Every structure is written in C-alpha cells, then in structure tokens.
User: Fold Dystrotelin from Cathartes aura.
Amino acid sequence: VQQISGMLMKLFQRARLEKPGQVDPRAAEFTLSLLAAMYDRSGTGYIKTRSAAAALIALSGDTLLAKYRAFFQFYAVPDGKVALITRSALRSLLTDLNQIPAIVGESCTLSCVEIATHSCFCGVLNSAIVEEKFLSWLKSEPAVLLWLPTCYRLSASEMVSHQARCR
Assistant:
C-alpha cells in the first residue's frame, strides 16, 4: 500500500502540473482509499500491484483499445518471441476488474468469470492465447465486462456538444 501510495502521489502531482486547477489535491488519497476498498478489504496493508494497475487502467480516460492492450501487457506471460495470456491469467484479470463494479454493489459471481474464461478460450486448443485473440474477444463485449465499454461511452459522450434545440 505504501508503494502504491507513493506512485499515486507522483502520478497525480504530474497530472496537477499538466492540468493546473483540474486535479483535486486529495486525488491520490481518494484513489488509494478506493483501491484499498477493492483489493484490501481485510486491511492487511497489501494490494497486488497488478490488481491496482488493472483498476487504474480501467478507470483511465484512455481509449478502450489502449486499455485492452494494457491489460494484455500486464497479465500476459512471455513465450519466446510472443506474449500469451493463459486461462489462469485471464481469470485473475477478470476477478481483479470485477472488484470495480463490486465496490458499488454490482458484483459478479465466480461462475461469471468461469463462463467468460470459457467463452474466450472456446475453440482454442492451446493453454494460452495471443493478443489478437484476446482483443477480438474483448471487442465482442463479453457480459462479465460489459460495464467497461459502457462507462467508456458515457465518459466519451460527456464531451459531445451539438447545436440542436430540444423541445
């Protein structure tokens, strides 16, 4: 938790420099509290860096494709010249990501994670998949992660303006 706190302080300090007046001075504190509520419910003082990174990526303002690629990079394992994501790593990713809606009472059961993992690996004979297959599966908007593209579309639509008058 202390390491993550230090990283968040640096991250938000840099953000305050880039966008003066737009970043709350307590952003690092609030973000750390959110991460602890999601990943350290028993108060051990330990949060997996990878879990925290997945949440920060999911909650970032980046494009969906950039988020999906970052998830792959964090959870994939090297296999020679390529990186692959295993069933186990996919389960970990989905479990980590599902702590985000769970914090607001929209939790998913473990069976949802298993069904999603099975759907991703449907027709795959190997024990792991390449990034292209992973991205293709995510673009199909699996039910277990439907909240992620929905939140992205909502945040993207906040910046849309039109000149039409409503009645």
Notes: The chain has a mean pLDDT of 91. The chain has two domains: 1-47, 62-166. The longest helix spans residues 2-18. Residues 1-47 form one domain.
